[in-house]
Design goal:
Oligomer: single chain
Number of domains: 3
Helix content: 10-25%
Number of helices: 2
Number of strands: 32
Length: 401
């Protein structure tokens, strides 16, 4: 009778743990990146009342007679199934589509891991989680190169970051030059170019019909309003409407600029030749950024240029269920999780990053409420075992009366 009572007590304790776990799952139904867990039960040692008997020539074998001593919690396993992605519209809100964890440095410097991607930049330009842990990754060089083979560190976006100017070395031309134009016909177009220091120059190109070709002249005006007329050549010649002459060039200061005429044609019709684009840029200041699926943070600068500023690292584990929950939606590695396999998103089995979204909790409320009923009934049944054992003991006591 005492065995049944203590078995009932163990059942109460175990089912209480199950209810506690279900309560935690339900409490975190709206926690971004939360992963639900399940309680696993295991029976305790059994008391052997009679051992197994060996069969003989005259008698058959007998099975052992055992009485169990109750139940215990064998473990609590975490399910790392994918949660749904919720759109937020914030560029620093990130979700991982697939396996992997964001790497963060806790306030004590401890390396932690999380699926909660509600990130932001702090006053020092560091990418941090909602609890202040610093996201880890790789910072790009001044030329925008990210070395993912190097060690990871804190991702920092310096305030007021600038990108150096780029001198113009090419201008792309396009459009039509009228094949029936009379000698002396002029077509003009204007474009702004830059020197090595990022100083702007307004270049006005004039195409003048001269016999079977088109001569080009240039008026270059600097920021102070000074005008120069650098030589431009050779002249443009066409065969069957296609450019056959070499690309002309002009020189501004120490910079030689090539006029790429691949887009020019010569057919009968209105002239519309124009300078379409140039490859230089002034000094640029960081204005905004985007985060790509591979974790690359691309800065968008005031001069229209983009450049990688860094890349977010992801870590994967051989056994994610072996991670230990460390609070604040973070995990720490354990001896049974394996060492973190660190790399760029989308490589080595790691998932891709989806910007402007957050991963919802993977808690299934229908399943949790069903399990809650099961746990309640299990608790109730074990309490009945204790009540029945108590009644049997009472009957035994009553024998003395």
């Amino acid at each position: 009778m005492l065995r049944s009572m203590f078995s009932g007590v163990s059942g109460l304790r175990s089912h209480q743990t199950m209810v506690d776990n279900i309560g935690n799952n339900i409490a975190n139904v709206n926690t971004f990146g939360f992963k639900s867990s399940t309680v696993v039960f295991q029976d305790l040692l059994s008391q052997v009342l009679q051992g197994a008997g060996m069969p003989t020539g005259t008698a058959g074998g007998t099975n052992p007679a055992q009485i169990g001593l109750g139940v215990k919690v064998a473990g609590i396993t975490t399910s790392f199934t994918q949660g749904a992605a919720q759109s937020t519209g914030r560029a620093t809100d990130l979700s991982i589509q697939g396996d992997g964890f964001f790497m963060v440095a806790g306030s004590s410097g401890e390396q932690l891991f999380t699926r909660a991607g509600a990130l932001s930049f702090d006053a020092l330009g560091r990418l941090v989680t909602a609890s202040g842990d610093i996201v880890q990754g790789w910072t790009a060089t001044a030329d925008g190169v990210v070395n993912t083979n190097a060690g990871v560190g804190s991702i920092v976006m310096p305030l007021g970051q600038q990108i150096r100017p780029v001198a113009t070395t090419g201008i792309s031309l396009g459009g039509n030059l009228d094949a029936d134009a009379a000698d002396g016909t002029e077509v003009t177009t204007t474009i702004t170019v830059y020197d090595d220091a990022g100083s702007p120059y307004d270049v006005r190109l004039t195409f003048t019909r001269s016999g079977a070709s088109w001569d080009i002249t240039a008026d270059v005006t600097d920021a102070a309003g000074n005008v120069t007329n650098p030589a431009v050549g050779p002249s443009l010649t066409f065969t069957d409407g296609a450019l056959t002459s070499a690309n002309p060039t002009l020189t501004i200061g120490a910079t030689t600029i090539t006029l790429d005429g691949a887009g020019l044609v010569q057919f009968a019709g209105p002239s519309g030749a124009a300078a379409l684009s140039q490859n230089g840029a002034a000094l640029g200041t960081l204005q905004s950024f985007t985060i790509a699926g591979d974790g690359t943070i691309n800065g968008v600068f005031s001069n229209g240029r983009t450049r990688p500023l860094g890349q977010i690292a992801l870590a994967n584990f051989t056994n994610p269920a072996g991670l230990e929950k460390a609070g604040d939606s973070t995990y720490r590695a354990t001896v049974n999780s394996g060492n973190p396999a660190i790399g760029a998103p989308g490589t080595g089995g790691r998932g891709a990053i989806l910007s402007s979204t957050l991963e919802m909790s993977n808690v299934d409320l229908a399943a949790e409420f069903t399990n809650l009923i099961i746990a309640q009934r299990g608790y109730q049944a074990n309490s009945r075992v204790i009540t029945s054992s108590d009644e049997l003991l009472q009957e035994l006591v009553n024998l003395k009366r």
